[in-house]
Structure prediction request, 1360 residues.
Amino acid sequence: MNFSSDNVSPICPEILSAIAAESESAALPYGADDKSQQLDAAFSELFGTEVAVVPVATGTAANLIGLSGLVSPFGGVVCHHRAHINMTESTGVAFYGGGTKLLGLDGPSAKIEAATLDSFLTAHSPNGMHSVDPECVAITQTTEFGTVYTVNEVHAIGSVCQKHDMRLFMDGARFANAVAALECHPADITWKAGVDVLSFGATKNGALAVDAIILFDPELRRHTEKSRKRGGHLFSKHRYLAAQLLAYVQDDLWLRNARHANDAAMTLMDSLQSLGAKAAFAPQGNELFIHMNDDLAKTLRDAGIVFRPWASIGPDAYRFVCAWNSPTDLIRDLGKTIAG
Amino acid sequence: MNFSSDNVSPICPEILSAIAAESESAALPYGADDKSQQLDAAFSELFGTEVAVVPVATGTAANLIGLSGLVSPFGGVVCHHRAHINMTESTGVAFYGGGTKLLGLDGPSAKIEAATLDSFLTAHSPNGMHSVDPECVAITQTTEFGTVYTVNEVHAIGSVCQKHDMRLFMDGARFANAVAALECHPADITWKAGVDVLSFGATKNGALAVDAIILFDPELRRHTEKSRKRGGHLFSKHRYLAAQLLAYVQDDLWLRNARHANDAAMTLMDSLQSLGAKAAFAPQGNELFIHMNDDLAKTLRDAGIVFRPWASIGPDAYRFVCAWNSPTDLIRDLGKTIAG
Amino acid sequence: MNFSSDNVSPICPEILSAIAAESESAALPYGADDKSQQLDAAFSELFGTEVAVVPVATGTAANLIGLSGLVSPFGGVVCHHRAHINMTESTGVAFYGGGTKLLGLDGPSAKIEAATLDSFLTAHSPNGMHSVDPECVAITQTTEFGTVYTVNEVHAIGSVCQKHDMRLFMDGARFANAVAALECHPADITWKAGVDVLSFGATKNGALAVDAIILFDPELRRHTEKSRKRGGHLFSKHRYLAAQLLAYVQDDLWLRNARHANDAAMTLMDSLQSLGAKAAFAPQGNELFIHMNDDLAKTLRDAGIVFRPWASIGPDAYRFVCAWNSPTDLIRDLGKTIAG
Amino acid sequence: MNFSSDNVSPICPEILSAIAAESESAALPYGADDKSQQLDAAFSELFGTEVAVVPVATGTAANLIGLSGLVSPFGGVVCHHRAHINMTESTGVAFYGGGTKLLGLDGPSAKIEAATLDSFLTAHSPNGMHSVDPECVAITQTTEFGTVYTVNEVHAIGSVCQKHDMRLFMDGARFANAVAALECHPADITWKAGVDVLSFGATKNGALAVDAIILFDPELRRHTEKSRKRGGHLFSKHRYLAAQLLAYVQDDLWLRNARHANDAAMTLMDSLQSLGAKAAFAPQGNELFIHMNDDLAKTLRDAGIVFRPWASIGPDAYRFVCAWNSPTDLIRDLGKTIAG
Prediction:
């Protein structure tokens, strides 16, 4: 069993079928095809408000291009130190933003707290010519430590952003897992809380390669599309991005996949705890961060279980990630399997 | 029949199968999987020399990232005015190059001629602080007007580049069509002629979305991979790029597809000429640029034939593009079909 | 006598005095000093409309920073092929614009003609995602070949810009020479003709080092000041830029210096013509572009006259530039001196 | 008395004379003049090794352009959180570096400690594709809190840089004050300790506007000069930069000015302490950071003393800066003056 990441999982059958179904006929390129034309409507219905959808093939592209519409080349993006955009996306934010700087905050379990954010923004004198003014706040849902901002927490951050005239971006590489965990409407943690742009991840949750930039302010579409084209992210066979996304939201596939992954993670947590592991953070989505001793780690590895050490949490810390296809029954019986 | 572009064609069966075959199991992300690890060897064999392969999902990304390793932020890329990088890739060259400027040359049928290039480079004083020095030459094979640089022509350009200490880049969005037309070895028009980097297109010729940056100087790998990551083009499920490419070069699929498209184009040329059209350029690959009168254009449209006007050649000019799946029999019988 | 450029001339006495006068006391940095605070009013009076003034130390900086507020990273600046921003400012426009591309036009004597501009802009389809849309037009006054746009010509270009929703920038490195030649009000060839931003040159015309970015749309101030700071062009001892500029416009020093240079150039033209030289362009400002044979060129050089060949006009072409301190009497007697 | 910054001071007489002396004659532009040609030799003698000198007009430009040769667009510059490049230069490092990221470290009195640096660099896994690798270390001498790295401290940092294959940059906006305080040879805290590039400040210490980029690796010259030109920082009347710098280093003017400022600061510290103020950091150069109560602050202000609050140190913290022209006698009698 491979828990090293959800990106080791393959395409799910529904999305593979949607790709295959596109292989029968010709279609206009660059988003002019029928499938692509359905995206705005499909996601506007999903979110209960008018949105513009700009799909790209990777989560990093969705973050970088999505953010670039919310901040100037002279401005800063406030994020958690652990944010993917700060730790794992090279110098991409400055690249797509034309210089944009990341301003890191601390906070428990990779979450920014509204009060901390408020203090930080208050301390920054506005309009400084010499320093970098914050212009945007970015949060990750679920976070880099697998925790989930509650509906109230997102709203509190949104209020602070409104107070300080900041735009709000959400990195939703695992947005589906968050919605599944919160059992909320996707609107509750996005536009209703003041989120301007969401990167809506599908790649980790069953797609081949597609993440959608969801613009709750459709006026951002022009900039976003220009930035996408300029970055080399406009697909000629755009219909294949659209087909993946439409299949992903049809009949709640995105939530079904996410629920499966979340449930598998909870089951895995139980199994690991029964073997002596301890949660580093209360697990909420499909990622587990745990502490365990070397013996247990070795036992698991010897049993063919794949997972990764996570040194930033501690020398005895590890990450396990479940996906849409994680084998829940085998996970439940992990103890027995190991006892072998 | 849709001849508006080869990017309206779907995935070919072999590549769809390769994608589907990846949907059985887990695999390491970001290029650490088995399929991705086979790319360098497969393309080194194909080209008969050691190459490094960096796949991306679009031809624009392949061009922009590939070029960025060959030119400084203060330097210029010499290309034909009609080059895709100059006409159709937004400000991407400056973006990925950190300022890099395009220096356009004229030449017949969208080709740069070696003598013209030599004169241009000779006229430029080197090392100027104020002006933009050429540092790289970029050619397109097949060209934007569907013509093909002969082996000798590419070698002549390579010699001029060597004389002036220029790097040489080839935009090979339709490289397969060129090799098929020339009936040469792929090495003959690339590294043996001095090409440093090739964007090796597959998307237009049967893939879902993948073009490979082929580095004939493997020392460029580190920069190229960093540029790819920073641009948001590193796929987590990298194996799907690799699977497409491996299927594409297996058993000469890339050449079989290209030969089909080229043959279809030649057949279409015959059919169109018999109806009164005239070639704007001698057709060599899978693209036709023709002149025809309004009556013929209307007749074709009424018969359900899709194609595009091409105003840059003239008010009576049109482009027809064939693909790996173009129906050669129907094309041969075009006259009859229209006569209906 | 050195006619190689007007930038070989030293500081004029009035400006040197103004610098020296600042050397008595402390003053607030970064533009908060009294002299800097007078700039907006002084130039608003000079131009007869409210302007914002952002001084920098070089003409290239004034052009690059001034332009950057008028065009997006995805857009193009239409200029004459010979424009300083296209020929002599490295990749600066793309640098400060975040990718901005230069789109070169031809035209006689380094001038863009309104009709040519109109055709060019009409031919460009707006809102294209793939190509670079023109967003701004830049003209140089006096031009790179020493000619001067008439008041009507600037208005005609301004009308074309308005028709196509383009911003209009003027590179005024030798603006004073143009106003002196035209005997017009500075408003006549700037905001009244639709110019949005002017780089108002002083360095070549008697200053140590200062060119002012004049914003006829004061809303551009914030971007321009941020771009200046980010580019490292905000002087801590900003008062020395202000002192130069205030002295430069006081009592029409800028026009007196320019008239002197223009008159010297006309006198020089007469002297050179009497020696057999021919004007390449009708001289209007302080620059002469002439044709002469090798014998005359040698004779002049042997007499200690310094000037530069100008190969872009022809193998027998040369440039002579007069400045605020050119010795008119010696110039008038050039024939005698040489005969000497 | 104005202690708000050393940049409120005017030009010192020797430098003003040097500027005036340049106002007699013509000279070649862009650094081809005699004075500019003397710079390399003058600074090579000063530092006791071969250096290349690239002068610019501001300290920010010197930092940004100087750094840009030492780090790639994908790399990071490790600096103290309080560093001028991190706090007060907008997004300039990313701008000139093409994306380069700042990686902030803590340390007492705005100093990076060698052991902290070593730990930080050791913790960073090299060659990561996703994260930003450190490529360069930047220190400020004197620091942003007015303290001075000892010769041993700089050497220790240099050793850590060598160990981890990092380039080393020194922001020397107040380099003269550091050398004066340490009574060392300028080589001792630069190239002998492994510094690759130094921004050698003159503006704050008596010049009108010039800071020199000193390249201890002359191979960096080409990149540095290209970056300077592209940024709009190449002066046409380059001789005025050179004249300032030559006067600045002649007869140890730079050290005499710095010693005066340092001595004035020490005298001021005594006076302030006798009035009840306390040093926040042991004063070493020409900057004082002190704590004092509101009453004393008011008394000083009422006496016409100008200084700035420094909130980042504390609500009762203030900065006083002395300059080459600070009135030492008045400063010594500050207590009496206030007692009035």
User: Anything to note?
Assistant: Residues 110 and 145 of chain D are 6 Å apart (CA to CA). The first strand of chain D starts at residue 52 and ends at 56.
